[in-house]
Design brief:
By secondary structure, this protein is mainly alpha-helical. It has helices at residues 2-13, 15-32, 36-43, 49-61, 68-77, 84-97, 101-104, 109-118, 122-147, 165-185, 193-208, 219-235, 239-247, 254-268, 271-285, 290-302, 308-317, 321-345. Helix 2 packs parallel to helix 11 (193-208) and helix 14 (254-268) packs parallel to helix 16 (290-302). It starts with a helix and ends with a helix.
Length: 346
């Protein structure tokens, strides 16, 4: 048992290489405006700054890579305002923008596993999830347009230098290379995160002649992240007993089984694990309850304190945990309300 716990913790802690690497790359991007050539070019054609934010966040949200929020954060960070209060909204935007992926991506377990259990095509599956997907996207864009004042989003890019292709490619090269690496290796490539991001940091250091990486590493955040990841490794071990309970569920146990799965998703904070629980329940209760199980377990996962993405937003944008929960809980209530109406009423 102890060996399993240690193995689970060690596997989770590999993610720290990702976090440290992104912190260093983000520091270079902020201090040396490494991405602003491309943003200055985009600004010539996109007049509404909020549209630029939506496009930027969607770019990070559709990438088929693990830890999308960690990569999209530097993109948003490059155009986020300096004002502390207004800046904190970007943590929520980043979080919302990369979590619609689980409703539609054929690369995610949250899509693949239920499809396999039900024996349906991708198009048929989307028929079940299209409304939750639209709810998630609409809520995200509503938040951007109504909760983020126009003046707080990229208030002025006129100071940005004239666009230069060579300078733009030089600044974006590490992010592009990192995306390619993550697409090729996926979560199985976690062991390469340390040497890879070390190489990217060295690249930026050579380009900008700055080797002081420590100024971008937050010691307090690193300790908190390490503890949260270790906790995630421990609580992830409850999946076995939970799956045994769910697989033994009978038709009259619909609500208790739903609650157990939702709470387990909240505790574990893992999309792969909630996908497995959803699939097990759909196998027992049938496809008519797919939307109900997906919405309830997705909600538990979204607000989980073990969710790595919360740490990233807090590090980059200083977003208070209360702000996350205030916004995310409303989205969860809407999704669960929709699922309840379509499953039990109509």
């Amino acid at each position: 048992m102890i060996t399993k716990v240690l193995e689970s913790i060690a596997k989770n802690e590999l993610y720290m290489g990702y976090i440290f690497g992104i912190m260093i790359l983000g520091g270079f991007i902020r201090e040396y405006s490494a991405l602003e050539d491309v943003y200055s070019l985009a600004k010539k054609y996109i007049k509404d700054n909020r549209i630029l934010v939506i496009i930027t966040s969607l770019l990070g949200g559709i990438l088929p890579i693990p830890g999308r929020v960690a990569l999209s954060a530097p993109l948003l960070d490059a155009i986020a305002p300096q004002d502390k209060e207004r800046r904190s909204a970007f943590g929520v935007i980043d979080y919302l923008s990369v979590h619609h992926y689980y409703w539609w991506s054929p690369l995610e377990k949250t899509v693949v596993l239920p499809m396999a259990v039900m024996g349906v095509s991708y198009g048929t599956f989307l028929g079940y999830t299209i409304v939750p997907l639209l709810i998630t996207l609409t809520y995200t864009w509503w938040y951007i347009f109504t909760k983020v004042p126009v003046s707080s989003v990229v208030p002025n890019l006129d100071y940005v230098r004239e666009f230069n292709w060579r300078r733009a490619l030089t600044g974006w090269a590490p992010l592009i290379a990192t995306v390619i690496l993550l697409i090729q290796t996926g979560k199985g490539g976690a062991i390469f995160f340390f040497p890879w991001f070390l190489g990217m940091a060295i690249y930026y250091s050579i380009v900008f002649k700055d080797w002081k990486w420590g100024k971008w590493l937050d010691g307090k955040f690193a300790i908190i992240a390490t503890l949260v990841l270790a906790l995630g490794g421990v609580v992830g071990l409850i999946k076995g007993p939970v799956m045994d309970y769910l697989k033994a569920a009978t038709p009259e146990m619909l609500i208790p089984a739903s609650l157990v799965a939702m709470v387990a998703a909240y505790i574990m904070g893992s999309s792969g694990k909630y996908a497995g629980m959803t699939s097990a329940l759909v196998a027992i209760f049938g496809p008519n309850y797919l939307v109900w199980f997906l919405c309830t377990e997705y909600s538990g996962y979204l607000i989980s304190p073990a969710h790595k993405c919360l740490m990233i937003g807090q590090q980059y944008f200083g977003t208070p945990i209360k702000k996350y929960y205030a916004v995310l809980s409303r989205l969860c209530a809407i999704l669960i309300g929709y699922a309840a109406l379509t499953t039990f009423v109509f």
